[in-house]
Design a protein that fits this description.
alpha+beta; 7-stranded antiparallel sheet
């Protein structure tokens, strides 16, 4: 079963600043609490990461996964999908950056399908932790 979640935060920073933080994958461990390691495996001709391997905390254990990134709508949007992972069948997500007011409305969308089904309360707890990454991006951008 595929689970999905979307959240939007207003960030007191420019869309360019938010985009810059979102694509600086190697620095995720500095600000994204659950990301323990991020290694860029492949870059495009512009030097942007298009394949990144992660080690993260998830559901009380460590998980490994690799995401492929799409910049075709950059800098307004960056999206990703699962290349390989140990506890998930699919991950599709995106950050969208829209200039608004004195900053940027950043929307984080995620669809995920785990290999093993989880009880509802565990899924909800995991969803809260995953979406918290958006609040961490906000804190980083505003610092």
């Amino acid at each position: 079963m595929i689970d999905q979640a979307t959240e939007t935060e207003h960030v007191a920073a420019s869309p360019a600043r938010c985009f810059e933080i979102a694509i600086d994958f190697e620095r995720y461990p500095e600000w994204a609490h659950d990301i323990k390691e991020a290694n860029v495996l492949e870059r495009d001709a512009s030097g942007r990461a298009i394949k990144v391997e992660y080690r993260a905390s998830a559901l009380g254990r460590s998980t490994h996964y690799t995401l492929g990134y799409d910049y075709s709508q950059a800098p307004e949007r960056i999206s990703w999908s699962l290349v390989e992972g140990d506890i998930m069948r699919a991950i599709d997500g995106a950050y969208t950056f829209v200039s608004g007011g004195n900053g940027t409305d950043v929307t984080y969308s995620l669809k995920i399908e785990l290999i093993v089904p989880l009880p509802g309360f565990v899924k909800r707890r995991a969803e809260v932790r995953i979406l918290h990454t958006l609040k961490e991006l906000k804190t980083r951008a505003e610092s």
